[in-house]
């Protein structure tokens, strides 16, 4: 299940710049991006035809915990204000959807690109992981070198136009005594999903088995730890799967756009 | 210049509910709404034809300080999730624009309503005035019973689609020693414009004369006070005037939609 290649060197004392990481992704390197380029903001990608752009922007306005929009391109544009690279090639992996069905998981989407695609960059919780580590909250998927586990919940997002779907969450096991700290620290980052949406009872979110995430990899929850759930930027992809727009491109879950924005820009005063 | 009618009773110890205030507005009462229904969130209104709705939502995403969107209706809807009244009649005053020109300022817009209008409720800085008063920061327009002064600046918003225009700001005179407090307190309310955008030098914003606001009433700036400027939800109207969509309805500046949301919902943790 793990999609992780060697992590050697990527969290060295001299970490790569976003441009350096993007150059490697463009060359075909494929790896979950958690922990990469610390201090630089990572983002979910969703590209939809212009005629769906209003529905998605409204969906995001109505579901801000799951879909904090950081940037929006003009139709057909391949760079964004926060992303100086090429959106078609500079993420580690992409998913292509037709009528809501996953039709390809690929390293680049140049051949799939269309002039009417509007690209949305949506905040990603990887952004606050450095802040969690800084206050002593462990981040299990970094420790074990896996992709973060993500789950479809039974919570419905507020629909918008033709788009509807379930809330998707990411999960990090947190020692019980550090749960309040984790909530407090991440609450300061509302543009990257903010405080947790749920603590400790996966069944209450409709999650039957933590060891079988819908996206990403399972990680161990150890004695004395609670599973803590944050709204996840894969929620837009779940809406695509449910709502079946004719065409969409997204990042492969956990394989994010590394932007040129600094994490600190999305931290509250 | 003042549009203020008697304020007797409206800030009594038993203040009106939003529904009570809306009932009075529906009956024709016309008054700036600052200080009314304390604890209840007030909002700017902009109604645009559906074909302009994406441009405006994108304009708001790109200019979040000036245009924090709190709620969006379906086309033609006359109520909103946060506003149980009738958007056509339950604000104290409206402005109607055709091709960017102000063609009417009226108490209700039933005769102007169209089935394709999408209504946007945008956060209003009146929401944080109770928090300012609570920490001892005076609010001059409340003291003198006037509408808040608002000014077009020479700062351009980031354009979106067919919409462009200047940043509009509201101004409150603040004693110099309380400026940091005013900044700190209002920073906790990003959904209603948040921290000030400028302090003390109106000319640096392209404001020639504080005594001649573009919207609302002038208020006195006293010795030892600095003019403090916050991004203002009249910015969308300035974009309408500049960009000339075929039709738009907005609140009359300072005459807001009193919503059913609580101020505390928009305060940061």
Characterize the structure shown.
The structure is a homodimer of 269-residue chains. Chain A has 269 residues and is an alpha+beta fold. Chain A has two domains: 18-125 and 243-263, PSTPO5379-like; 128-231, PSTPO5379-like domain (PSTPO5379-like fold, 2-Layer Sandwich), CATH 3.30.2040.10. Chain A has six helices and eleven strands. In chain A, strands 1, 2, 3, 4, 5, 10 and 11 form a seven-stranded antiparallel β-sheet that branches. The first copy, chain A, has a four-stranded antiparallel β-sheet with strand order 6-7-9-8, with helices on one face. In chain A, strand 3 and strand 4 (101-106) form a beta hairpin. Chain A is globular, with a radius of gyration of 17 Å. The relative contact order of chain A is 0.24. The model of chain A is unreliable at 1-10 (pLDDT under 50). Chains A and B meet through helix 2 of A and helix 2 of B.
Topology (SSEs and partners):
The structure is a homodimer of 269-residue chains.
Chain A: H1 18-26, E1 40-49, H2 50-62, E2 69-72, E3 94-98, E4 101-106, E5 117-123, H3 129-134, H4 140-143, E6 150-156, E7 166-175, H5 179-187, E8 198-199, E9 225-231, H6 235-243, E10 247-251, E11 257-262
Antiparallel strand pairs in A: 1-5, 1-10, 1-11, 2-5, 3-4, 3-10, 6-7, 7-9, 8-9
């Amino acid at each position: 299940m793990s999609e992780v290649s060697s992590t050697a060197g990527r969290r060295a004392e001299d970490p790569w710049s976003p441009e350096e990481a993007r150059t490697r992704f463009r060359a075909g390197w494929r790896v979950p991006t958690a922990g990469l380029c610390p201090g630089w903001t990572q983002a979910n990608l969703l590209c939809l035809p212009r005629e769906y752009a209003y529905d998605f922007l409204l969906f995001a306005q109505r579901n801000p915990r799951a879909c904090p929009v950081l940037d929006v391109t003009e139709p057909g544009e391949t760079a964004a204000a926060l992303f100086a690279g090429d959106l078609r090639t500079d993420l580690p992996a992409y998913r292509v959807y037709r009528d809501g069905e996953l039709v390809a998981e690929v390293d680049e989407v140049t051949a799939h690109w269309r002039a009417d695609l509007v690209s949305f960059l949506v905040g990603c919780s990887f952004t606050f992981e450095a802040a969690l580590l800084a206050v002593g909250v462990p981040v299990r998927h970094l420790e074990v070198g896996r992709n973060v586990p993500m789950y479809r919940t039974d919570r419905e997002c507020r629909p918008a136009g033709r788009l509807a779907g379930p809330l998707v969450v990411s999960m990090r096991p947190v020692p019980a005594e550090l749960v309040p700290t984790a909530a407090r620290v991440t609450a300061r980052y509302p543009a990257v999903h903010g405080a947790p949406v749920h603590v400790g009872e996966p069944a209450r979110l409709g999650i039957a088995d933590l060891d079988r995430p819908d996206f990403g990899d399972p990680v161990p929850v150890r004695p004395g730890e609670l599973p803590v759930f944050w709204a996840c930027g894969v929620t837009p992809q779940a809406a695509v799967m449910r709502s079946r727009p004719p065409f969409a491109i997204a990042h492969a879950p956990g394989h994010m756009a590394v932007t040129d924005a600094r994490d600190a820009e999305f931290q509250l005063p």
